[in-house]
Amino acid sequence: TQSTWAGAKMWLNQSFFNDNGNSGYRLKPRFMRAPDSSWRPGDDKEHVMTLIVEVISAWQLPKVANDASDIIDPYVIVEILGVPADRASVRTKTIKNNGFNPVWNAEFEFSVTCPELAVLMIKVHDKDVLSADDFIGYAGLPIESVASGYRHIDLVDFKDEPMEGSSLLCRFRFL
Fold first, then answer.
1. Whole-structure pTM value
2. What is the dihedral of CA 23, 24, 29, 30, to 10 degrees?
3. How far apart are the first and last CA of the chain?
4. Whole-number CA gyration radius for the chain
5. What is the chain's pLDDT, residue by residue, as a tens digit (175 residues)?
6. Is the separation of the CB atoms in 102 and 71 below 8 Å?
7. Which residues are CB-neighbours of 5 under 8 A, at least 6 positions away?
8. In 3D, which of 31, 7, 47, 18 has the Cα closest to residue 158?
9. Is the CA virtual torsion 144, 150, 154, 157 positive or negative?
10. Quick one: how far is CA 29 from the chain centroid?
11. How many CB atoms neighbour CB 22 within 10 A?
């Protein structure tokens, strides 16, 4: 099995670059560029944003390459990556034997203190009983680029290749 942690750091960077047309450049937020700034991660407790992520369903999740005869049992991990105060991870239930159109209808709430540095990482896995769970695909979205409403989110594999036809339906709300 491939190591998903080795790719996770690259996925985080790729998430920001996907948002700006893959330019390979991302300007630091103003508070990090100001020479007189005394900002530290987690300092701003007054401007906390609440993000509600509803993972509704998925379409056409592929079978795992090393076991094409098996029907996958998918689940979704939703994470906020950013400053230590923002980091969080939750998981949906596992849907047995349904990679074609699994339905979760799972809602999660996250507090974000520094949206300029936060990424919403959504990963899909296949639950295995006798071995380690298999990674299916992911999507990384900078929090500042997430728009409220229902969204189809295209997935990419661990090599950052688009997974044709595979997507998640999610709903995002900000409070």
1. 0.87
2. -70
3. 39
4. 17
5. 444 444 777 777 778 777 777 776 778 888 888 888 787 776 666 668 999 999 999 999 998 766 666 789 999 999 999 888 899 999 999 999 999 999 999 999 999 998 988 999 999 999 988 889 999 999 999 999 999 999 999 999 888 889 999 999 999 999 9
6. no
7. none
8. 7
9. positive
10. 21
11. 9
Give me the amino acid identity at 77. I
The type of residue at 69 is: S
For residue 131, what are its two tokens? Answer: 């071995």
Structure tokens at 31: 């508070």
- What number of H helices and E strands is found in the chain? 2, 8
Would you state the structure tokens that stand for residue 1, as one six-digit string? 């099995």
| Residue found by looking up tokens 């990679």 in the block | 99
